[in-house]
Amino acid sequence: MIALAPRLDPIGCLATRPRGALPRAMQEERVLSGLAGVLVAERARLLRFLAARGAGDQAEDVLQDLWSRVAEAPQAPVADPVAYLFRAAENLLRDRRRSTLSRERRQTDWQDAHVGTHQEADGERLLIARERLREAQDVLAAQGGRVAHVFQRYRLDGIGQAAIARELGVSLSSVEKDLQRAYRALAELRRKFDEE
Amino acid sequence: MTARPDDLPADEAARWALRVRDPAFADWDGFTAWLEADLANNAAYEAALDEQEAADALFDVTPAQPVATAPERAPRWRLPAIAASVALLAGVGGWLTLDHGAELQTYETKPGERRTVALADGSRIVLNGGTRLSLDPDRPRVVAMANGEALFQVRHDATDPFVVTTADGTRLVDVGTIFNVEVNGGALDVGVSEGAVVYRGVDQAREVRLDAGEMLTRAATDASPVKRPVDRETVGGWQTGYLQYTDAPLPSVATDLTRSLGVPVAVDSALADRRFSGTLSLEGGAETVMPQIAPVLDVQLRRAGDGWTMTSRDARHR
Q: Can you give the residue ranges of the RNA polymerase sigma-70 region domain (chain A) (predicted)?
């Protein structure tokens, strides 16, 4: 029988904070699991973020949504619970945005639906996608070796920006600038595709 | 193009989008302050994210996608949602094997080539050079690894564990995880950077749990696995352009170099038992790397046909 990962006690993930410094809400909510407890403690900060990040007066609803996800999620040790919660909140808002976008897109696609079997359409789409990939790679290469390299490391190899900066011995802000250049060039290419 | 593009509000939004998308981003209060500074900032930020994600999507093209014309297959089997799924798996063994007749999607890299496969659930597999693995697109959390090396960054789901199988029937089951797997015939190396992995050997009896900072080495299918500590930072280190070793046999270093640089690297039989501890930088391709690493490895690296051969430094023959 294999032992499963140990569950965190309610304050387990706040180990770096001295016990006496725990926020009041946390002490009252000792039964809450680690993340839920941190959510209670950081409620005001999260709400402020959610409101500014487009949730507006629905910030409370979104926080409620976040709460239920955190409460349902299986317990696993989280290195930085505050950052984790902000990240989860950001993802939640992003998911909402995406589902709005894809709903809109589905409606347009429906209007634009053209004749042809599904398979033909898929095959054609794939050919176009491959051609566009090739053009995107050319556009990146035209931005210069380092821009293309940084983009490759970041987007395709999944390396964090700080790690790339260390790797190349350059500052974080120049990695940021390189990525910005890459994305700007790709955005221009996409505008060209849209006009086709 | 504008003369001072950094001054455009859209570029500021793009910079924030880049920062926030980085997994290491921590300045959430600074981000909130920027959003609050101008009501238009959030919309600009969303637009920048949309644009970056759309640009990313240009690269999400899988070559030679099999055309889905297969007849409807039997409903796939699902693990019941229980927390102790790992223990359960020990009981069901072969049920999760891949031979159920579905068309598999195979991903393959040539030596020196690297490739990232992003799965729908957010998991990622980064293939090092000379690697082949396949998965059923309908059940992408079971990956059959034929050969090579890959770094798995897995979204953990206790009800649907991520499983890596090798040709000889060995199974690796994740418990929430970033781990690296190297397969060379029956030889197997597994290093865990985050979370844990359960190793199940071919005989099905032997199970080894590997936690973060542990690695397992098995010389051959029938050899006993050996567990030892590993620096979690260096697991999957090939991805960052560095190879790090502790007491590794030179032939396995040569295999890694072949895989990462795309040129065959052989080891003179006199050095087959030599071991190496240290870090090798892979920056700059074989032509640059070889002369630099020879002294680090304390060997001579000589060109041999298309590739290179490691020979002993003192053997000055020829």
A: 41-99
- Give the CATH number of the domain where residue B308 resides: 3.55.50.30
Q: Using CA atoms, how far apart are residues A27 and A46, in angstroms rounded to an integer?
A: 19
> Residue B62: inside a domain, yes or no?
no
Written as one letter, the residue type at B76 is: R
Alpha-carbon distance of A151 to A182, in angstroms, equals 7
The residue among A157, A164, A176, A193 with the most chain B CBs within 10 A of its CB, best to mutate, is A157
**Taking CA atoms, what residue in B is nearest to A194?**
B54
Contacts of residue A125 in chain B, CB cutoff 8 Å?
none
Residue B2: band (very low, low, confident or very high) from pLDDT cuts 50, 70, 90 = very low
Domain match, A91 and A16 both: yes
- Tell me whether residues A5 and B59 touch, CB distance under 8 A: no
The reported pTM is 0.46
Domain membership flag for residue B75: no
Number of domains in chain A: 2
ipTM: 0.76
User: Is the CB of B240 less than 8 angstroms away from the CB of A159?
Assistant: yes
* Residue A2 lies inside a defined structural domain of this protein: no
- Residue-by-residue DSSP string for A4-46: PPPPPPTTGGGTTS-GGG--HHHHHTTTS-HHHHHHHHTHHHH
What is the span of the domain harbouring residue B171?
85-232
